[in-house]
Amino acid sequence: MDADNLIKIVRGLDASGPGEDGKNLDLLWTKLVASSDESFHAAEESTLRWLLKSMNGNTATAEAMRRHPLTWSMLDCVFTRIPLFSLAKSLADRKFVAVLQQTLEDIATVSPDNTQHTATKRKRSSPAQFGSAGTKSPKGCLDTAKPLFTTLRSLLNRLDDATATTARDNIGAEHIRSLFCMSATDTAALLAPAFFLCQLLLDTETYDLEGAEEWVAAASSLWNLHMQGVDDVSEVATHLFTIPASILSSLENLSEKERSRAPATLKSKWSADLQEFLQRNLILPCRTTFINRQDFAALTRALDVSKAKIHMTGPSLYFLAAKSSDTNVEGERRKNTVEWMKRVFEEVEKVVHHSPDRNTLIELIIRQAIEKHTPVDVKNLREIARNYVLEKEPTDWTLLGSIVACDPAVFQTSGDGSDLLVSICDKISKSMSKDSQQPIAEVLGAIRQSFVIRRDLVAFLQLWFTEMRKAEENQQVEQSPWFAEGPRNYRGEYLPSLIEKELSAAQLSEFVGWLESQSTQSSPNSLCTINDTIAEGLKRETYIDAVGLRLFQITWTACAELSDLPSRWRISSKAMRWVNPDGKSAIWQSLTDKIKRILKKGTLDAPETFECFRFCYDAWDSLATNADAATEPAKLIQNFSERLAKKVMSESSMQIATVLDRADCQVATQDTISASCYLDVFLAGGSRFNRLFSMASGNVPEPLKNATTATGLDIKDKQTLWQKVFSNDMNLNEAKLARTLVDQVIEALEQSGNEKGWPGSDSTLILQILSRIPLDSFNRWQREKVMNTLNSNSVKMIKSPSKTTLDSWKQIMSLTTKMMSRATFYDDMTFDRLAQMAGAISACLVKHSAEDEEILETIERYSQLASFTIRQMADQVDERSTKYFADCSQYIAASTANKFKRMSGLHYSLVKSLISILARSPNTQNNDILSKLVVESQGMLAKAIMFVVNPLINAEALPAEPSSEERLQLMAAAEAAPSAAPLAQLYKGKPAALQTFADDCSSKMSNGSVIAWKVHILLRNEMPAAFQLSAPKTFDMLSPLPQRLRSQLLRDFTSSITKSLRVQEKVAYLRDLVDAMRAGCFTDGQTLAIHEVVGQIIGSPEYTGKFDGYDLAAAYSEIVTVLSKAPAPGNVNLCRTLYTLLEKKPQAVSQWDVEATLSTVCDLSPVQEFDQTPLPYTWLCKLTDVIIKKHRLRLEGHYHLLLTVLQTLLDRLVINEVGTGKSSVSQETKAHAYARLITLVCEPTAGAVSRTQHQSSLDSATDAAKRSAGRHMHLVLMQYVKLQLTENVPRPIREALEPAMNSIFDITPPEGRKILNDAMDASGRAILREMFKRYVKFGKWSGV
Fold first, then answer.
1. Cβ–Cβ under 8 Å, residues 539 and 574
2. Looking at the predicted structure, is the pLDDT value of residue 1225 above 60?
3. Cα torsion through 732, 734, 740, 742, rounded to 10
4. Percentage of residues in the chain with pLDDT exceeding 90?
5. What is d(CA 1292, CA 1296) in angstroms, rounded to the nearest whole number?
6. Which of 239, 323, 989, 1130 has the most CB atoms within 10 Å of its CB?
7. Beta bridge partner(s), residue 489
8. What is the CA radius of gyration of the chain?
9. Sorting pLDDT into bands at 50, 70 and 90, what band is 667?
10. From the CB of residue 1263, how many other CB atoms can be counted at a distance below 10 Å?
11. pLDDT at 406 exceeding the cut of 80
12. For residues 824 and 327, which has the higher predicted lDDT (pLDDT)?
């Protein structure tokens, strides 16, 4: 019925038209939406024909129909309902393509009075009325564009729909495609307004149009349907480049003027679609044409057409060309790519050259070339530097910096490059603006780099000195960029590091000779600057010998009578370290008067005074072996330190000082020297500074003492200060100095006792410092003083346990344990104090609801503390210890009397420690009081444990959600149970209740309950006869448990299972575990249990071999066969088990097992794409390592297996382990592990290759093994060379592997080396030749 009404309405429209304000269109749309009959499409086809007929023509009504958004929505609706075959006929008859083109041209024509940018946030306005002027506004045009592109995209999607299976549908689709099969000119005319609409959307920032992301894709899809011809590229360049390139520039922020604020989804989609369109239809065809015929006409045309928007199209064109070019290719392809990119840059620059903002544009393009590493012709760069930079005022240093960063070779070669360099240097010398200092520094660094590239650093040093001298002669030292950081530092590479790297000793000597020949009287700053740089870069003796004292002599010849040249003292310090003892004395004598004057009268915040002070220390350090010569610098340092302590580094000054956490060479670059700089010298200026001072004066330097006692320092500064003091071994190795420093820390700890809420931040830091000081640095008096201080300060903590943090107790327990590990007796050292501490820490644990892992850690810490303390008394029985243990007896009796109601968690640990220490003490056996105390304590502890456990057994279940106090008591009781009397004797309940309770613990173990694990282990260990629990054959994953507790809990649990088993029963149990694993139980719990049982069997002296046809060899074979199937982390446990058997029971491993292990390692070495957790590389190396060490004789005649393993491990090291984002330290460690394998093969130990009977006493087993390995190992070397050709092997990895490759060279005979040479191509031989040279130079044994 709806279809009939729809047909009537359509027929009526032929006479009435769209109606007033398009009312008839609204009625048609209503009926069209209501009509949904899929069987017939006559009404929809009639609608389509009428719509297209009404839209075609130049009348006002036709234009209004085309501009009306509802018209295109109706077209979209009928397109989806009409079959493709019928749709094609209707579209062809009614000239749909012409209507589409006319519509695009209409809506691309925007009213000139309504083109203003609209606000980003605006109110929604009602749609424009049919035929009104609003439809011609930007908003009206975009409102029409939205359904138009949606309709177009919907139609194209139907054509590409793979579900169209009938022949008529396929024919219809092809017919519709043929409608768009027009010439390139016609298609370009169709698409140009479509791209304009995309530009209009960006200009008006109308981002709320639904489906706008598909506009570019829809337009480019139409181009794919056009009739291809020879003029396609030219048409795209002429008509379809300017607007898409401008849009792309906005989306990719390629232009500084036009930056889009479009949403990220729109940006990414349009950018990708535009790049694909322009790449496929313009850039790639032009590139092919250029490479084949050197024809660049199309891109030249594109640039000419888009001159008006060159600020956007120029960067876009270069962006597209660079995106499609890969400069990493080799051979002819790279040559073509380089020529192409150079030509693109040249053509873009020609057009940009005439733009008013050409500097900005060309800089943007050069920046792209730098980022994408695309080549630019150096001639073009030089022309740009001249025309854009040198001929313009003010100088555009930023552009020049980009030019030289793009290719430092602009200053190379003679002629143009040299002339340009001279011009640039003149410009730099004349530039005094502070704003341009940073870009000028970049230029200077790039100039230096250009000389480095052409291997002529000497020429740069000469240029640098010449320019500095010019600036100094013109009195421009402070303003000249040549004296700034630019020449010294280029992208993190400092000039001193290049001295030995780029110069030979002869070249350096020649340059110093050139300096000597220069007139330097008028340029002392220049001379000191360059000499300081050279001196800082000299490390090796060859270079030092080549220079000798010449730098020192040149400097002081020119600067002897001058002042304020701090760098000359740094040069003197270097010279003092280089020369022989006589030379040291001569240098000191020549400078003594100047040093005395400066240190006595020099301004303390002047760099000259600071550097003179540092030189004086260096001189003292260098002359320390000559007591007479060292007296004078020592006295000067002491006097100057007193002067510092009175003024710059007084107690009040040090309250606000900052402790520098950086190198002393950086401190010296400051213009004004503060107390922090001097303090850094005392702390880190030299390792022996404070030691020498202490030996000379008997005390620490006064400035350092002021710093360590300053209370106003920030916590971070205090931490850095003490860290620097005690990380210097020289400070600790000198007993007197160490004692003084430790006394200062202890004194600070005593003073911190006045803090409110002790320990506060300051006292916590002091506790950390004391904990980090080596125990040998404390004498007994200091240990006792620390303990007395802790004892008195912790009284507040014990009285108010709820106000103390657990971290504070951990700090105190750590320090107390450290002090009490040696003989230390302090005031009020009583058992009651330990009990009070146990109660306070337990209350703290309960209050803070500590996690299970933290509870167990605290129990361990406290147990250790209590053990060390009690051992002090047990080691020597006297009146004091007798009284101490009498207090212990009273405590035991009192606890028993009050039925353990006052026993908190750590009291169990305290009693356990008491029992453990007394039971092991030799004094207990001969002392009835102590023996009785042990028995009483064991009985009391057993009753206390059962006091906690019995209620749970009676309840037949653990608490569902135990409180913090319950968790602490249960875990402490479980930890203490092994030291107590037998618990089974105290259990009076029913076995059934115990059995039910044990089953409940077992069920909760799988959920990760640490309490369940602990209690279950307790039941198995202490009451095995009271109930029957079978040994489990499978173990669950340990992931529910805390990470650090998994291994230990599983080991304890496994030990509780096998505790009462004999060796034969353990072997049978191992068989059950391995069988379960082979059946598919690869959990980490299962594999760890296997490892634990294997370890117990190996450690048992009763194990002699097979029991019931099963032994360790059988277990080994079965584990090897399933290793490759085991997932992580269980595979690591299996590797650990195999390693243990190979290492500790080599006789239990057969020849087949060794070969199977090597085969498995070979299979596991390559990393598969689907393998998320491959077996760690280090474990593969460990298994191979132990086979080579322990089973070397079994490898004779089987080297083909070992070689395959070594080659696959090398492949994985280079291909998979390197360059995967892991730390270089980890990669280097793996490389060292592999290098050890090669070294073990090539340099075996005598024990690894010796047999029980030698064939001849003159036959060396190691030599025979080396000869045998030498016939095969060259294949590994060949593999390594090939990998260097195909993969990127970082330098640290090559250095780690170099000793291994040298050992292969050692054992490879000449015929083997010939095979190596013949088996490689020219590239491989070049690498091999370089490796052999290094082997001869550094790795070959010379007999010395």
1. no
2. no
3. 20
4. 43
5. 6
6. 1130
7. 494
8. 43
9. very low
10. 12
11. yes
12. 824
Q: Report long-range pairs for 1167-1171 (Cβ below 8 Å, ≥24 apart).
A: 1167/1212, 1167/1216
How far apart (Å, rounded) are the C-alpha atoms in residues 508 and 548?
11
Nearest CA to 738 out of 691, 771, 693, 802 is that of 691
Beta-carbon contacts of residue 197 (< 8 Å; ≥ 6 apart): 104, 107, 108, 141, 142, 145, 215
User: In this predicted structure, what is the pLDDT of residue 328?
Assistant: 67
Q: Name residue 884's amino acid.
A: Y
Does the pLDDT at position 61 exceed 80? yes
Which DSSP string do the residues of 1111-1136 spell out, in sequence order? -HHHHHHHHHHHHTTPPTTHHHHHHH
Angle between helices 60-67 and 138-159 (to 10 degrees): 70
State how far Cα 572 lies from the chain centre.
Answer: 41
Q: Is the dihedral of CA 1191, 1194, 1196, 1197 positive or negative?
A: negative
Query: Is the omega angle on the peptide bond into residue 1040 within 30 degrees of 0, that is, cis?
Result: no
Which percentage of the chain shows pLDDT scores above 70?
A: 93
- Does residue 846 contact residue 803 with C-beta atoms inside 8 Å? no
Closest to 1212 in 3D by CA, of 1285, 1159, 1162, 1156: 1162
Cβ of 901: how many Cβ atoms within 10 Å? 7
> Which of 242, 189, 253 lies closest to 219, judged by CA?
189
Return the structure tokens found at 802.
Answer: 């709820």
Q: What is the mean pLDDT of the chain?
A: 86
Give the count of beta carbons closer than 10 Å to the beta carbon of residue 435.
8
Exposure letters 244-271 (e unless 16+ CB within 10 A, then b) = bbbbbbbbbebbeebebebeeebbebbb
Determine the length of the chain: 1344
Q: Is the dihedral of CA 947, 953, 955, 958 positive or negative?
A: positive
Please choose, from the candidates 857, 786, 853, the residue with its C-alpha nearest in 3D space to the C-alpha of residue 821: 786
Interval 1105-1136: pLDDT, tens: 888 788 899 999 999 998 887 777 778 899 99
Higher pLDDT, 1339 or 1074: 1074
d(CA 1226, CA 767): 33
The strand pair at 489-490 and 493-494 is best described as antiparallel
CB burial of 1218-1252 (b: ≥16 within 10 Å; e: otherwise) equals beeeeeeeebbebbbbbbbbbbbbbebeeebbbee
Ranges 39-48, 119-128, 137-146, most confident: 137-146
